[in-house]
């Protein structure tokens, strides 16, 4: 057995030689029981990390110094904080597993800081007028337009994440109770739900009437156009496609801002609810936040919109009046 000395956290240890690809593949094999979306994200992030290591002539298991330099590279190349933290989370899981396998004396990721996230949301919410215009553009005379109308309706009414909609099955709808069970972020079971007002439930059912597999409870709730009538295995509409559908619809009504995305509809749900009598706790339950502190950010944004301090000061300076 060939061995080599590898420096890990300033400790020398004699290890069996293992290539980066072997380490990455073994890690992914170990975690293959996780959700497909998680494995997909791990694989993508490790390909990028592996390419960076190769470009920097690093062919050993990553050290603490390597990880920090990769993080700083991501920052220097203007990656978003959420993207940087996604990469770092994958590396943290990788080194944690490698440490448990005895390939590190000490986890090199310990005490490495991620990118700092803003407390405020980075996407805008729509006004009620914009939501109406967004939905009114759909004629609902084709399977696709019925599907897209239903998708946007459920996103803006129920505050769903795109990944939650991708995971939804036809059988997750309880038609009698008018609810949709949701597999939420970080959850393993569909033990949470959103209520479906009659308008939304009708939109979903109108779309399902175009589907040959509408009686199959295990079929995805939303699928691609090619699956409307095709007699083959039906795959769920991926969250990337859902995002494109929303972005295209936003552009069609002249809303082409980078701050308006599919996730903006979730912010719209919270904002409209709070502005129209919903309490913080009701909004937390609606969005399925684990902490009300996250929900409170929406309240902070609304209060900031009401704050007329700038105009009040301008009035004092330029008009001599105190009214805001």
Could you write a compact summary of the structure shown?
With 324 residues, this protein is mostly helical. The protein has helices spanning 20-30, 36-55, 64-76, 81-100, 128-136, 143-158, 162-167, 198-208, 239-252, 262-275, 280-287, 292-306, 309-318; strands at 3-8, 11-16, 173-174, 179-182, 192-195.
What percentage of amino acids are in beta strands?
Answer: 5-15%
Radius of gyration: 24 Å
* Mean pLDDT figure: 85
Principal-axis shape equals globular
- SSE string, helices as H and strands as E: EEHHHHHHHEEEHHHHHH
Helix count from the secondary structure assignment: 13
Separation of the first and last Cα atoms: 79 Å
Q: Helix/strand/pairing class, anyone?
A: mainly alpha
Q: Which stretches are poorly predicted, pLDDT < 50 over at least 5 residues?
A: 1-17
User: Helicity, in percent?
Assistant: 40-55%
The count of DSSP E runs of length 2 or more, i.e. the number of strands, is 5
Spatial ordering of strands, largest sheet: 3-4-5
- Strand count, sense and closure of the main sheet? 3 strands, antiparallel
């Amino acid at each position: 057995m060939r061995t080599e000395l590898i420096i890990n956290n300033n400790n020398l240890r004699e290890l069996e030689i293992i290539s980066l690809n072997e380490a990455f593949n073994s890690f992914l094999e170990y975690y293959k029981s996780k959700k497909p979306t998680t494995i997909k994200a791990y694989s993508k992030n490790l390909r990028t990390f592996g390419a960076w290591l190769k470009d920097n002539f690093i062919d050993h298991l990553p050290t603490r110094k390597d990880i920090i330099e990769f993080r700083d590279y991501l920052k220097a190349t203007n990656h978003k904080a959420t993207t940087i933290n996604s990469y770092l989370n994958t590396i943290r899981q990788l080194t944690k597993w490698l440490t448990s396998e005895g390939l590190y004396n000490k986890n090199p990721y310990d005490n490495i800081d991620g990118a700092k996230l803003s407390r405020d949301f980075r996407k805008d919410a729509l006004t009620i007028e914009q939501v109406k215009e967004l939905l009114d553009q759909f004629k609902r005379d084709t399977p696709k337009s019925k599907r897209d109308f239903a998708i946007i309706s459920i996103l803006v009414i129920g505050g769903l994440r795109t990944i939650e909609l991708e995971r939804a099955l036809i059988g997750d709808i309880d038609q009698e109770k008018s609810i949709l069970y949701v597999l939420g972020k970080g959850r393993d079971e569909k033990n949470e739900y959103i209520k479906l007002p009659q308008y939304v439930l009708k939109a979903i059912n109108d779309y399902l009437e175009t589907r040959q597999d509408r009686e199959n409870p295990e079929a995805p709730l939303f699928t691609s156009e090619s699956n409307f009538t095709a007699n083959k295995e039906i795959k769920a509409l991926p969250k990337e496609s859902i995002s494109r559908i929303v972005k295209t619809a936003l552009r069609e009504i002249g809303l082409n801002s980078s701050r308006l995305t599919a996730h903006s509809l979730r912010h719209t749900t919270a904002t409209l609810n709070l502005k129209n009598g919903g309490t913080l706790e009701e909004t937390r339950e609606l969005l399925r936040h684990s902490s009300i502190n996250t929900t409170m950010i929406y309240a902070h944004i609304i209060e900031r919109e009401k704050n007329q301090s700038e105009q009040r000061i301008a009035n004092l300076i330029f008009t001599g009046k105190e009214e805001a």
